[in-house]
Design goal:
Blueprint: H1 13-47, H2 51-79, H3 81-101, H4 105-133, H5 139-166, H6 172-175, H7 177-188, E1 194-195, H8 205-228, H9 230-253, H10 267-297, H11 302-308, H12 310-330, H13 333-349, H14 359-387, H15 394-420, H16 430-458, E2 497-498
Antiparallel strand pairs: 1-2
Length: about 500
C-alpha cells in the first residue's frame, strides 16, 4: 500500500512551521558560507595560525560536505526525513560548539570537518522536509519560499558576522548557532515524519569514504607543498589520484552507487559540471582572499569587510529570478557566456583594490560588475544541469552539481596561495598580501572567462526536450543569492509521501 498524497498548505499553521524549521535550519549552514571567510584574518590572529590553518578551516568543512552531501538525502529517505534533519541540526550544533571552544588551529580544523558532516545531513534534509510535507500543487511555491527566505539569511550574514567578529569575537560566529538550533529543534517537533517506503539496499559508505580520502589527499598535497617539499607533496597527490581511480571503479561495480556514473553519458550534464568547476573555482578563490586583502591589506575591520561584498548578494537576490526566466526563453548559451565574461571583468577590477584605496572608487565597481555577472549565470546553470537528465533524476543532477561547485572551491582554496606565492605568515603583511592578491585577481578572472568560453562552445542554444522527446525539468528555486554554491533542487517527488498510517500493509 502506498503512502497517501495529502499534505500541508503553505498558508496553514503546520505549513508555516515546516517552512520556518527548514529555512532556519538551512540558514545555519548558509550563514557559514559568508561568515567564516570574513573571520579568517581574526582567527589567524587569535590562534597565531599560519595560512595553511586558515585554508584548512575552510577546506575541512567543504571536504566532508562535498563528500557526503549525496548521501544526506538518501539517509532521509530511508530513516525519516524529519529524523535525519534533526540529526543534522544536532550534529552541526555540537560541532559549532567545538569550533567556538577550539584551543588551537588543529582542534578548529577537526571541528570544522565534523561541522561539514552535519551540513551534509542538514542541507538536503531541509529541502526534503519541504518536498515531502506539502501538497503536490503547493510544493513549487514552498520550495520558492524556502529559497527566497534563505536568501534573507545570506544577506544578513555579512552584518551579523562582521558585528560578531568585531564585538564579542570570532568564536561567536560558531557559538551563535546554539540558540538558533534550539529554535529549529522546537519547530521541528511539529513537523510530520516522512520517508520513501520503497528505499532498500545498502548505502555506498565506502564510495563516500574513497571520494573524501581522494579529495583530502590532493588538498593536503597542495596546501603542504610549500613546507613539506615537492617530493612529499607529489607522492601524496599521486596517492590521492590512485584513490580517486579506486572510487571510480567502486562506483562502476556497486549495485547502488553514491554517484551513478551513467549520468555522465549525457554530454550536456558533463559539460555543465565542467563549466561549474571553472566558475565556482574562481568564486571560491576570490572570496577566500578578498577578506584577507580588505582587512590585512587595506585595514578594514571585519564588519566593513563583510558588507563590502553585499552588492553581490543584493544583485543576485533581485536579478537571479529574471535571469532564470530569460534563459528559459532564449536558451542557456548566451547567459552562460555573457555572465561569466562580465564577472571576469569584475574580478579584473579587483586588481585595483590596494592599500590606501577607497571603497567607492576601487572596491564597489569591482563587486558591482562581479555581482551582475554572477546574477546572469547562476540560475541558467541550474536550469541547464536539470535539463540534461530525465525528470526522475533531478535530485541527483542538482546534488552532483552542488558537490562539484564545492569541490571546485576546495581545490581553489588549496591551490591558489601556492600559485600566487603566498604562504606561511605572509598573509599578515599588507605588502605581501597586496602583491599576491593582484596575481589572484588575474588567475580567478582567467578561470571565470574560461568558463564563459566553454559555455559558448558546449552549451545548446535552447533547452526544449531531451533525446527521445522527453520533457526537461525546470528549476523550482527561482531566487538564489548564495555565492558559494548553486541551489539544491528537489527530485520529482513521485515517491515522497507522508508517514504511512498505522496498520497499513
Amino acid at each position: 500500500m502506498t503512502a497517501p498524497q495529502e499534505g500541508l498548505s503553505t498558508a496553514s499553521p503546520g505549513g508555516r512551521r515546516v517552512l520556518a524549521a527548514a529555512v532556519l535550519g538551512s540558514g545555519m549552514a548558509m550563514l557559514d558560507g559568508t561568515i567564516v571567510n570574513v573571520a579568517l584574518p581574526r582567527i589567524g590572529e587569535g590562534l597565531g595560525a599560519p595560512l595553511a590553518t586558515l585554508q584548512w578551516t575552510l577546506n575541512a568543512y567543504m571536504l566532508t560536505l562535498a563528500g557526503l552531501i549525496l548521501l544526506g538525502g538518501g539517509l532521509g529517505d530511508r530513516y525519516g526525513r524529519r529524523r535525519v534533519f534533526v540529526w543534522g541540526v544536532v550534529w552541526f550544533t555540537v560541532a559549532s560548539l567545538l569550533c567556538g571552544l577550539a584551543p588551537n588551529g588543529a582542534a578548529l580544523v577537526v571541528a570544522r570537518g565534523l561541522q561539514g558532516v552535519g551540513g551534509a545531513l542538514l542541507t538536503p534534509g531541509s529541502l526534503a522536509l519541504i518536498q515531502s510535507s506539502f501538497r503536490p500543487r503547493e510544493r513549487a511555491k514552498a520550495v520558492g519560499l524556502w529559497s527566497g527566505l534563505g536568501g534573507v539569511a545570506i544577506a544578513f550574514g555579512p552584518f551579523l558576522g562582521g558585528w560578531l567578529v568585531d564585538g564579542p569575537g570570532w568564536r561567536w560566529i560558531f557559538l551563535i548557532n546554539l540558540p538558533l538550533a534550539v529554535v529549529v529543534l522546537v519547530l521541528a517537533r511539529g513537523v510530520p515524519e516522512s520517508r520513501d517506503w520503497e528505499a532498500e539496499g545498502r548505502f555506498d559508505v565506502l564510495g563516500a569514504g574513497l571520494a573524501a580520502l581522494s579529495l583530502g589527499a590532493v588538498t593536503y598535497a597542495l596546501i603542504a607543498a610549500p613546507t613539506s617539499g615537492a617530493g612529499t607533496a607529489s607522492a601524496v597527490a599521486a596517492g590521492g589520484v590512485l584513490v580517486g581511480v579506486a572510487f571510480v571503479v567502486r562506483e562502476r561495480r556497486t549495485a547502488r552507487p553514491m554517484l551513478p556514473l551513467g549520468i555522465f553519458r549525457s554530454r550536456l550534464f558533463t559539460a555543465t559540471n565542467g563549466v561549474t568547476l571553472c566558475l565556482y573555482g574562481a568564486i571560491g578563490g576570490v572570496f577566500f582572499l578578498l577578506p584577507v586583502q580588505l582587512q590585512n591589506g587595506m585595514g578594514y575591520d571585519a564588519f566593513e569587510a563583510g558588507i563590502a561584498t553585499l552588492p553581490i548578494t543584493l544583485l543576485m537576490t533581485v536579478l537571479s529570478g529574471p535571469a532564470g526566466a530569460l534563459a528559459q526563453r532564449i536558451g542557456p548559451r548566451l547567459p552562460l557566456t555573457v555572465g561569466p565574461l562580465v564577472a571576469a571583468c569584475g574580478l579584473l577590477l579587483l586588481h585595483r583594490v590596494h592599500p590606501g584605496g577607497g571603497y567607492w572608487r576601487d572596491v564597489f565597481p569591482a563587486v558591482l560588475v562581479q555581482g551582475l555577472g554572477m546574477s546572469l549565470f547562476v540560475a541558467p546553470l541550474t536550469a541547464t544541469v536539470l535539463a540534461s537528465l530525465e525528470v526522475r533524476r533531478a535530485g541527483i543532477a542538482s546534488g552532483v552539481n552542488n558537490a562539484a561547485a564545492r569541490v571546485a572551491q576546495l581545490l581553489a582554496v588549496a591551490a591558489l596561495p601556492l600559485a600566487i606565492g603566498l604562504s606561511t605568515d605572509e598573509y599578515r603583511s599588507a605588502t605581501e598580501v597586496n602583491t599576491a592578491f593582484g596575481r589572484a585577481a588575474w588567475l580567478c578572472a582567467g578561470l571565470m572567462a574560461l568558463g564563459g568560453v566553454a559555455s559558448w562552445l558546449l552549451m545548446p542554444a535552447t533547452l526544449t526536450a531531451l533525446p527521445g522527446g522527453a520533457p526537461v525539468n525546470r528549476p523550482q528555486c527561482r531566487t538564489h543569492c548564495a555565492v558559494t554554491s548553486p541551489p539544491l533542487e528537489p527530485g520529482d517527488g513521485r515517491r515522497r509521501g507522508w508517514r504511512r498510517p498505522s496498520g497499513a500493509g
